[in-house]
Design brief:
Layout (H helix, E strand, L loop, with lengths): L4 E6 L2 E6 L10 H16 L5 E6 L10 H4 L5 H16 L4 E5 L2 E3 L1 H8 L2 E5 L3 E3 L13 H7 L4 H8 L3 E2 H7 L4 E3 L4 H12 L4 H34 L2 H15 L1
Parallel strand pairs: 2-3, 3-4, 4-6, 5-7, 6-9
Antiparallel strand pairs: 1-2, 7-8
Length: 249
Amino acid sequence: MTELVHLEAADGVATITLDSPHNKNALSQQLTGELLEQLEAAGADDAVRVIVIRSALEVFCSGADLSEATTIGMGVGAQRMVDVQRAIVANPKPVLARVAGPVRAGGIGIVAAADISVAGAESTFALTEVRLGLAAATISLTVMPRLHDRAASYTFLTGNGFDGLEAARLGLVTLTVPDADLDDAVESVLESLLKGVPQGLRETKKLLNRELLADIDARGKDLAELSASLFGSPAAQEAMLAFLNRRKS
């Protein structure tokens, strides 16, 4: 089986790369399973001080794997999305997301869970669940705390897309830069993070994420069950199959 998530570590930085070109980094059981394994490995490596999540593709993440959702169901997949967000939030190392290209639905949960997210201005985002008879249930755990004021209602209910500049204005990402400057911006943030003493980084991250982590633990299971039930509903199955058929044609 081809590895879909790669881990490389050098100079105190662990880089976790999503690389599933056949489905544009959709959150399949294999991809989320490997992502959890790599996050655990990076978090346990004493030589690693910071973790970067990025994509090897022009797409950061296309959201849930609808092919799996319409065949084997999302009982495992929905809980995995809770687990992935928790693994990022609870990781003892700061997690930085390097965001380029489209980010859809569940992929936005990864961006929101990261401690710092740096996006290219031409990146695009959309919480498209509502258009498929779904709700952004599991990722609401991390997305809603990041968004300013009434932004959650607008983005969750309309499903409308927005670019990297708007994502920063709404609070979803930390910083947006021209795409040509993305790697330099990521490097600059990494340089600052690497100046932190590991204990200081670890304890500061605990302080910042204490309430978010408690909320994930309190509500994650219920939201995963809600998400799985919505994915399995006739209305969502019909909408997802129609979407997949349009994409094939």
